[in-house]
């Protein structure tokens, strides 16, 4: 008998190889077992183009309404893609659009399997990274200084108050200059999203910055984070988890000796760099999940990788592919588990858990796609094609 998912899940379809995988996952792993009310939005690039990207906005609003969504990887068009798909224009990154509507923070978490040893020996549990996705050098103003002169930082209050100016540097010759900013609202949302995630996952929370050097800018991040964490102190204590502030270089050193199992909240640049280090340290992009969490506790689950375009072109030529579907499967199980928890329907969460265990069991039993076959220990003599892997899991549900 099918299990009923009580409340809606917002589904965002996507592009290329991941769109093909997406349909297989739904048809073979989910629909035979679940009765779901899916609010479907087609974020495939052609449909975004037809709707002048309105569909992306509608989909994001639907997540705000229903609370839980799951998203397939999508093309962010550049000039070459505009030509390839005959698009009206190079539409903005759907992830960027959705993130700004939900005001969310992105968390990445690796899936751990026993036969893929992490590059760092002490890592036993997944390390999640929460990256602040607004401001700092990603919204900077830069200037190449041509020669001697004075650089100043000037703030003009909107209410006509007194101007404030600070000397950045007296240049004696050519150099380079950058102005960066962040907003209290964005930092606070980031801190709240990280705290919500840590409480939801029942894991410790680390935050690292460099407030010893940056006594105003970085110190402000620390102040906001400390303040928001203090407000949730009782919840942290009830769950037996902790919040720690560390200097960023100390955090890096500690992470290499830690067992894992924590959420590491990072400022924008640190998150950009460290999420790639953690992802490759745990093995493969095909095993990296990603979830956007809004400060109001809305969740959008996805795989961290893109549309795997090289495999898609092979597929179009009629060649067989071996694309890893695990992160896309876990996007669905993440959404189902959270839906089940919010709806108080443990049978839904239990089914999500069963899919995850079956997938991990398959890989640990030696059945996996080519990307994993290359890094698994002990070595395996063959690998599964895209559909074979999903069929193998489907047969065991
Ligand atoms: P990608 O799709 O992540 O793939 C890069 C390479 O990583 C692949 O060619 C493949 O290596 C390997 N790979 C990634 N995922 C894999 C999987 N599931 N199974 C096996 N191998 C996997 O990145 P991309 O090719 O740079 O980007 C393609 C499109 O995706 C772009 O249009 C980009 O805009 C979009 N994108 C979307 C998102 C998103 O929606 N969240 C994120 C990133 C990129 P081999 O070719 O060596 O096998
Ligand atoms: Mg990066």
Summary, kept brief:
By secondary structure, the protein is an alpha/beta fold. It is built from 15 helices and 16 strands. The mean pLDDT is 95.
Radius of gyration: 23 Å
Instruction: Please give the count of helices.
Output: 15
Could you give the count of β-strands?
16
Bound molecules: NADP nicotinamide-adenine-dinucleotide phosphate, magnesium ion
What's the story with the biggest beta sheet?
A: 10 strands, mixed
Mean pLDDT: 95
Structural class of the secondary elements? Answer: alpha/beta
In percent terms, what proportion of residues is strand? 15-25%
Principal-axes shape call: globular
List the helices and strands and how they pair.
Layout: E1 3-4, E2 9-13, H1 16-30, E3 34-35, E4 38-42, H2 45-50, H3 54-66, E5 68-71, H4 79-84, H5 94-102, E6 105-110, E7 128-131, E8 141-145, E9 149-155, E10 164-171, E11 175-179, H6 184-201, E12 205-209, H7 217-231, H8 233-239, E13 243-247, H9 248-255, E14 263-266, H10 268-282, E15 288-293, E16 299-303, H11 309-316, H12 326-343, H13 346-364, H14 370-373, H15 386-395
Parallel strand pairs: 1-3, 2-4, 2-5, 5-16, 7-14, 12-13, 12-14
Antiparallel strand pairs: 6-7, 6-15, 8-11, 9-10, 15-16
Bound molecules: NADP nicotinamide-adenine-dinucleotide phosphate and magnesium ion.
Summarize the structure in words.
This protein has 397 residues and is an alpha/beta fold. The longest helix has 19 residues, at 346-364. The chain has helices at residues 16-30, 45-50, 54-66, 79-84, 94-102, 184-201, 217-231, 233-239, 248-255, 268-282, 309-316, 326-343, 346-364, 370-373, 386-395; strands spanning 3-4, 9-13, 34-35, 38-42, 68-71, 105-110, 128-131, 141-145, 149-155, 164-171, 175-179, 205-209, 243-247, 263-266, 288-293, 299-303. The strands form four sheets. The chain has a ten-stranded mixed β-sheet with strand order 4-2-5-16-15-6-7-14-12-13, sandwiched between helices. A two-stranded parallel ribbon has the order 1-3. Strands 8-11 form a two-stranded antiparallel sheet. A hairpin with an 8-residue loop joins strand 9 (149-155) and strand 10. Helix 1 (16-30) packs parallel to helix 15. Helix content is 43%, strand content 20%. It binds NADP nicotinamide-adenine-dinucleotide phosphate and magnesium ion.
